Amino acid sequence: MEVNLTLDRNMRIIGKNKLGLETVFDTDPSLGGENTAPKPMEVFLMAMGACTFMDVISILRKKRKTVEGFNVKIVAERAKEHPMVFKKAHLIYELISPDATMEDLNRSIELSQTKYCSASAMFKAAGCEVTWEAAIKNSSES
């Protein structure tokens, strides 16, 4: 795996992978940025969320469950002193499905968090406490 990062302007950085797909980073004006893109630490959280998101959706689909909507929200806490690493991250999974059960969802999340999600594993290996909760809404209730 290889990526390349280049300075766009001020503190705005453009990252590209080998396919040329871009991720843009920026920071607060107080640090020389323009607030035009997520900060690097926000992207870390998004990456963990996307990793487990893809795992859970994939597992549910392998169970032949219908996914009509899915959301993962992450609330995190960072150390107060530098380096300001993540100390805690709490993921809130919300699934909309006409046929998935809480057992299906919980098992899918458990597999993601204990076996498949490399990003969550990296957070945990760095000493971050990763917790989660889940909710399911039957789409016929909408």
Describe the structure.
With 142 residues, the protein is α+β, with helices and mostly antiparallel strands. The protein has two domains: 1-37; 40-141, 2-Layer Sandwich (GMP Synthetase, Chain A, domain 3). The protein is built from three helices and six strands, in the order βββαββααβ. The chain has helices at 40-62, 102-116, 118-125, and strands at residues 3-9, 12-17, 22-25, 69-78, 86-96, 129-137. A three-stranded antiparallel sheet has the order 1-2-3, with no helix packed on it. The chain has a three-stranded mixed sheet with strand order 4-5-6, with helices on one face. A hairpin with a 4-residue loop joins strand 2 and strand 3 (22-25). Helix 1 (40-62) crosses helix 2 (102-116) and helix 1 (40-62) packs across helix 3 (118-125). The radius of gyration is 17 Å and the shape is globular. The mean pLDDT is 96.
Taking all Cα atoms into account, the compactness measure Rg is 17 Å
Number of strands: 6
Q: What would the average pLDDT be, to the nearest integer? A: 96
* Helix/strand/pairing category: alpha+beta
- How do the helices and strands follow one another from N- to C-terminus? EEEHEEHHE
Roughly what fraction of the amino acids lie in strands?
Answer: 25-35%
Task: Give me the number of helical elements.
Answer: 3
Features:
32% helix, GMP Synthetase, Chain A, domain 3, three-stranded mixed sheet, 142 residues, alpha+beta, 3 helices
